[in-house]
């Protein structure tokens, strides 16, 4: 897969040295075949990004519930949730136009995911050339990670799009530090900060790189570099109005549902980019193994190698000049983000690092380019695209929550006024979304509050202070002598210290004759599984 690497007349300052790179000539017939294969990959990837109608799981439902609030209430809700506001505000207006069906809601991240594909082509072509752009586009269109997060009502596909626009804005400002290009760069930095907090890490890493390059620049160029640094800083200063909420979230929310990451997490993240969270319980398969090997091999090759002829290349022990900037983005995200997670005892998951995913694909594309032979390049990228689309298609049907089964049981066997409890409270939002409004009395453990939102503030303390025995007694009292208590509970919930199982046991002790397990925990069928039990009132007489 090779083209003449036609780029803009002036070289990008994001590439320190591009001399000596092999740029093979190929026939027009091969170019048409490559273009056709790329178009097929993009078309299939676009198709897989839309039309997913399965019920929303926890994170999606919480996002929708917060976004449905009046605009002036969204910051307060997010303060207790732990996220910045940009995606929620966009979703708020989107729902006003298209409604809140599952397909309509998922269309917004699908649009962001789709827009990232041509944006990546344009930006990468201007900086690294046409060959790298085509390779990156095919890899992005077919990547199961990008496809999945284009079907989830969360901000991650927006983050991927913003990461591309941010790199494009930085490149444009470095080529010519005009007013509007500097404004665009400041807006790109601000948009990232207001979309996800992990974007802080590559922004910090690139900020340090910019300062270093400014000091290193000659006297004639230093003024231009300083303008870029100032625009970059203004974008960062735009975060100041949100800073008090961010500091409160950092002190009181975090990720209490998980464990501190292992020391190998930085390597694992690259592997996790080959799949998505809906595939956690899937059996390892051929496409997963091919993608995993391909990502690691090409990532390392792209960092240190470059083709010199069709059959030879050079490797070095340092980062290649073509890869240094993009390595700052990728490694800055992974290294700084993981170190911050270690220091704060927070969880690391691949979706947090979505800001580094498209840059990672650029490195993979550079790794493919290091194979000078055109046919070898084509074979490698076609294999990765095929495996990626195969994996994305398989995972497309993975059920994300057991809530639809629980809602069906309640609708057919529950009675108006029955009490429905959720342990942990994370099971409440996706189930409540599927139930008629006002039909049941719904509460959540540990705070005995409603199921629409989750209060993550000092969550671990709330769990420690909650007593399953006292909670069970309150549920039975709320139900009274004529109504059932229903409990959706997870025996595997992180950070609950077995209290959900204890709550189920306490309810069974209070209503020993009416206990019935309607749904078992279906671990291998759902991403978010749980058990569903009924505790019927005592039979009179």
The backbone outline, from C-alpha atoms, is elongated
The overall pLDDT, averaged over residues, is 90
Low-confidence stretches: 1-9
Helical fraction: 55-70%
In the sheet with the most strands, the strands line up as 5-4-6-9-7
Q: Based on helices, strands and strand pairing, what is the structural class? A: alpha/beta
Number of helices: 22
Strand segment tally: 9
Task: Please report the distance between the alpha carbons of the first and last residues.
Answer: 80 Å
Number of domains: 2
Beta-strand content estimate? 5-15%
Largest sheet: 5 strands, mixed
User: Radius of gyration from the CA trace?
Assistant: 26 Å
What does this molecule look like?
- This protein has 541 residues and is an alpha/beta fold.
- It folds into two domains: 28-399, no CATH class; 402-535.
- The chain has 22 helices and nine strands.
- The chain has helices at residues 28-48, 58-67, 74-79, 86-98, 102-128, 130-142, 144-149, 156-175, 179-193, 200-216, 219-237, 243-252, 265-272, 286-304, 324-344, 357-369, 374-396, 403-413, 428-432, 459-465, 468-479, 499-510, and strands spanning 305-307, 313-315, 399-401, 419-423, 441-444, 485-489, 515-519, 526-528, 531-535.
- A five-stranded mixed sheet has the order 5-4-6-9-7, sandwiched between helices.
- Helix 14 (286-304) packs across helix 16 (357-369) and helix 21 crosses helix 22.
- The chain is elongated and about 90 Å long.
- The chain starts with 27 loop residues before the first helix and ends in a 6-residue tail after the last strand.
- Residues 1-9 have low confidence and may be disordered.
């Amino acid at each position: 897969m090779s083209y003449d690497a036609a780029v803009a007349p002036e070289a990008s300052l994001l590439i320190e040295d591009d001399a000596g790179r092999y740029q093979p000539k190929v026939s027009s017939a091969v170019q048409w075949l490559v273009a056709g294969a790329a178009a097929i990959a993009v078309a299939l990837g676009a198709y897989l990004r839309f039309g997913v109608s399965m019920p929303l799981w926890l994170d999606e439902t919480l996002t929708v519930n917060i976004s449905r609030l009046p605009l002036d209430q969204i910051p307060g809700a997010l303060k207790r949730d732990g996220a910045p506001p940009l995606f929620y505000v966009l979703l708020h207006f989107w729902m006003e136009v298209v409604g809140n069906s599952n397909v309509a809601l998922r269309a917004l991240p699908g649009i962001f995911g789709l827009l990232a594909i041509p944006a990546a082509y344009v930006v990468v072509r201007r900086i690294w050339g046409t060959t790298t752009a085509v390779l990156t586009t095919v890899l992005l269109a077919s990547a199961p990670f990008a496809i999945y997060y284009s079907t989830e009502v969360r901000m991650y596909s927006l983050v991927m799009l913003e990461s591309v626009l941010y790199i494009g804005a930085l490149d444009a400002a470095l080529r010519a530090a005009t007013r509007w290009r500097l404004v665009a760069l400041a807006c790109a930095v601000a948009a990232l900060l207001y979309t996800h907090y992990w974007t802080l890490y590559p922004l910090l890493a690139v900020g340090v790189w910019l300062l270093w390059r400014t000091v290193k620049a000659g006297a004639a160029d230093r003024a231009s570099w300083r303008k870029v640094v100032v625009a970059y800083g203004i974008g960062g200063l735009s975060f100041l109005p949100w800073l008090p909420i961010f500091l409160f979230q950092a002190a009181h929310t975090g990720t209490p549902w998980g464990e501190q990451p292992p020391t190998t997490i930085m390597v694992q993240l690259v592997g996790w980019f080959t799949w998505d969270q809906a595939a956690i319980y899937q059996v390892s398969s051929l496409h997963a193994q091919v993608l995993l090997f391909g990502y690691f091999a090409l990532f390392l090759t792209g960092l240190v190698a470059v083709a010199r002829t069709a059959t030879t290349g050079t490797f070095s022990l340092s980062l290649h000049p073509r890869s240094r900037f993009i390595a700052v983005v990728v490694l800055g995200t992974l290294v700084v983000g993981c170190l911050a997670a270690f220091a704060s005892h927070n969880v690391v998951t691949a979706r947090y690092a979505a800001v580094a995913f498209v840059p990672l694909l650029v490195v993979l594309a550079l790794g493919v380019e290091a194979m000078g032979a055109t046919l070898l390049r084509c074979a490698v990228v076609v294999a990765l695209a095929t495996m990626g689309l195969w994996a994305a298609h398989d995972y497309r049907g993975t059920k994300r929550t057991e809530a639809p089964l629980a809602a069906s049981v309640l609708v057919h066997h529950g009675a108006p006024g029955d009490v429905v409890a959720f342990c942990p409270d994370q099971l409440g939002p996706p189930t409540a979304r599927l139930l008629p409004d006002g039909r049941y009395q719904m509460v959540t453990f540990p705070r005995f509050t409603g199921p629409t939102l989750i209060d993550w503030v000092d969550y671990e303390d709330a769990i420690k202070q909650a007593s399953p025995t006292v909670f069970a007694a309150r549920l039975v009292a709320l139900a009274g002598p004529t109504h059932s208590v229903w409990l959706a509970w997870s025996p595997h919930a992180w950070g609950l210290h077995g209290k959900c199982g204890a709550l189920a046991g306490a309810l069974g002790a209070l209503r020993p004759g009416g206990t019935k397990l309607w749904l078992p925990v279906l671990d291998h069928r759902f991403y978010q599984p749980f058990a569903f039990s009924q505790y019927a009132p005592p039979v009179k007489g």
